[in-house]
Each structure stands twice: as C-alpha cells, then as structure tokens.
Amino acid sequence: MKNIYHTKTKKTRHKESNNTALHAIHSLTQQNFTHSSKMFNAYLKTGIQLFGMENGLLSKVNGQNYKILAVQSPHIHFQTNNILVLDQTYCAEIIRGSKTVWFTRKSNTFKSEKQNYFEQLGLITYIGTPIYVREKLYGTLCFASTGSKTSDFTDKDIYSIEIMANFLGQHLTLKTHKHHNLISNHVNLRLNDIIKRSNLAIMEVDPKGRFIKINKACEIELGFKLDDIFNKTLFDFMHPEDRLRLQNQFEKLMQGETPANFQGHCLGSEGNYGWIEWVLSRQPDNKTILAIARIINDRVNNEQILERYHRDLEKTILNRTKALENSKEQFRSLAQHLMKIREEERTNVARDIHDELGNALTALHFDLEWIHKRIFGQKTIKKKIRESMKIVNNTITTTQRLTKELRPRILDDLGLFAAIEWYTEEFRKRNNVHFELTIQGPDLPTKDLATNIFRLYQESLTNIARHAQATKVSTTLRIGRKYISLTIQDNGIGIKKNNIENKKSFGLIGMNERVTFLSGTISIVGSEKEGTLISISIPISENMELNKQIY
Question: Which comes out higher in pLDDT, residue 54 or 396?
Fold first, then answer.
C-alpha cells in the first residue's frame, strides 16, 4: 500500500492490528451494495465506530477541488455533492504526500491558516488517508472528532484506516468493472440481434477461420445445421484450390486492406461443391472478420456457359460468316442478361446491408447515447460508453463503405460526373496516388449508359490498384455530341501483351464485353517506361436509340 509512510513493516503492523477492526472492515467487503451512496455510508459508520469519533467524510478529488460523496456528522454542516477548495483543508496534505495524515491537539501539527479552519468547525482530532482505484488516486477517507485524544494515533489506528481505504478502492474497482460489463453485454446483445434477424448469411470468424457468431440464414445458404458449422472452420467448407486464396485474403484484411469480395467453391451438405460469394471486412476491434455469404451457382454457371460458347464461336468464325453475325447477337443478349443480373445482385446486397445493418447500428448508437446522458459523475463509465459508441460508429462506417462499393447511390441521385469524382477521391485516399481528373461536356441523360461508363472506370482503377504499382494517374472524360471518350493513363510498370490476351484476365474480358455490347471500342497499351494507357470510345446516339436496359 503506497500511502503508508511509517517505519514499521506491513508484517509488523499486521501482527499489531486490532482483530476486531479487521473483522469489521472485512464484513464490509462481503456486502453487495446496490448503490454507491449506501456503500460510502456503510464505510463511514464502521470507521466512526472503530476510531471513536463523531464525524466521517468521504470525498472525490478533481483538480484543485474535491467533491463530498458521503458525510456522517452531527456537528459539521457539510452536504453530499458540496464542492470544496482542496488547499483549505488537510486533504491537500493527503493528496500531495500520498500518505495518511493525522493530528491531535497534543501533537501540535496545526498550520496557522488551517488551525483556524478546523477550530471554527470545533475539531481537535483528525485522521485521513488516500483512496486508490485501479492504482489511480480517487479521493480521501477522513474521520474527525470534537474531543481531544490523550495520546497520538497508533500504528493500529493508521493501519486500520489504510486497510479500510484499500478495501473501499477495491469495492469501487469491482463496481466500475460491473458497469462496464453491463454496457459491453448490451452492445453484444444488440449486435447478436442484428445478425440473428438478418436474411443474409452473416458470420463472425477469427483470423484462423473459427466461427464466433453465425445466424440461422447460414443453414439455408450452406445447407448445414448450425452445430455442424460450429464444429468446422470457414476454411473447411472451401475447395482445396480456393482455401489458400481465402486464407491469403484473411491475412490481407488483418493487415489493413480494405473490404473485399471473394468467390470460390463451397462444400455442400451432399458432398458436392457450389459457387459462393463472400463480402469480407475486418471488424473495428481488429481481431475478427465479418463475412456475408451468398450462393451464386446460377450466375457462375451462366458465366461458364458464356465461356464455352465463346470458344465454340472462335472455332466456327472462319467458315461461317453469316452464322457469326447471328452468334454475335445471341452473345450480346446473353451478356446483357448476365450484367443485368450482376448489377441487380449488387443493388440487392447493398440495400440489405443498408436496411438491416445500418438501421440497427444507428439504433444501437442512440441507445448508448441515451445511457451516456443518464449517468452522472461516473467518468470511467462514461469513457467506456464513449469507446463503445466509437466501435459502433466505426462499424457503421464499414457498412456504409461496403454499400458504396456494391452500388453507389450517388450515381443514381447525382449522376455520372458526381460518381466519377467521388470514386476518384476514394481511390486517391486508399492508394495514396496523385490523381489528375478532367471532365468535359454535359452530364449523361440516360441512367443505363452512365452506369456502364462508371463500371468501366471502376474496373480500370481496380486493375491499376492491383497490378500497376503506379504513383500517378491521369483521367479524361469527354462527352461529345456523338461519342463518349474515356482515357486512363498511369505511370506504373505497364501491362504486358500476353496479359491483355490472357483468357483468364476476367476483368479485361468483362470490359471488352461491355464495350462491345455498347458498340464501342477499347484500346489497352502498356509500356515499362510509360505505364498503361486505356482508351474507350462509345457512340452516344446509337445507345440512346436502342434504349438498352443494361447495367
């Protein structure tokens, strides 16, 4: 106990201590006080009986003042919650010295200015000691009397009041800890309720893929009972070829990479593998990962059909010129259908995340704010509430970012130019890249064409972030009377020709297909010294006349 300054050791004082005093103090620790005021008054009453004094005072120090938390006195007209100047009393000596202070008239330890103060109150005997909560100074515990002791305070008296202050500090520590647990449990219950009620398959896992929380919707998406899911890790459900990719994605997320989409083969309840898409993000506590799952068998099957059809088309193109034109038309219709499905899925997922998670997290924030406003004088508790509110706000930010990545509402509300400027700024912040953006001409009047231009721009910047290692990007978007031109130039390592022609470069293939469907042209040129230049040209009048419902 840091506030004991006498020469005798703790062991010696313990042997000399009054067993009756220790028993009385120990009995206080066995009580379960529902209110702090009851606990404070119980300690004061016990101390008054032990030391044979009439007055007890318990205060909390705040800078140069102290607040009276509890008082037991027939003589002194102090009241609970009164604020007093610390330097006017012997509490200042206790705080500055971090030790027990006592005096009697016989000891003659009065200082002149404080002697008058105590004599006005009629006090001639006094003892006080500091209280520590979690090793930090909390306040003081003091007892005084209008009667004079015939002898100085003994080590037994000093040891008893210090033991009492020590137990009181432990009581306050436990009480604070219980309030913190109550708030933490409230936060966890609300988050659990969000996950439980969602129609999306939502799960929380640790970096090793072990499940922490899963909802009922996981049974529907994965086809397993919840007990069977908890007995495995997330990686156990993935095909061996995709398992390592998912583990690498987890490592990148824990290292601070932004949320990502992941697609792979997932084990079904009948032993077969189906396609599943994950939306992955790191939780604000940096210890767990939130995963949202969606089965995409139909979409992947359609994409595989498209690839097979494309291969067959290449084999017949030399001998069947007329059949080629018909096949192109079928190809475009299929591409239109697939892209529309994909954008609809993006929109649905974004809306579900916004409606389910966003609204529930906002309600949770207001609940915490309500609790915060109704707790008075408990700085530690209010600090913990603010920390919990910060976690909730960070989770809301993550939810908003996921929603924007899937389907930015700014594109629907404010148009293509605003969406391009927003996405450029987000890209610049995430990748620390110097950016030059030039936009010329009027905004596009058609929603479908604007969406296609935005997706082409988004895919181009995604490829730059993943592969280019660029420090500077320059983009020009021109809307003319007949054509839309979009150029993106970076100063990175430059894309190689074999990568452009690689059939597994699905991002570039998707861009080509989208531009082809819009009757446009795309050129991608890479150089080790000059980086990569992407040039896209789309005819406006032809697309407006067709009024195509493509996303």
Answer: 54
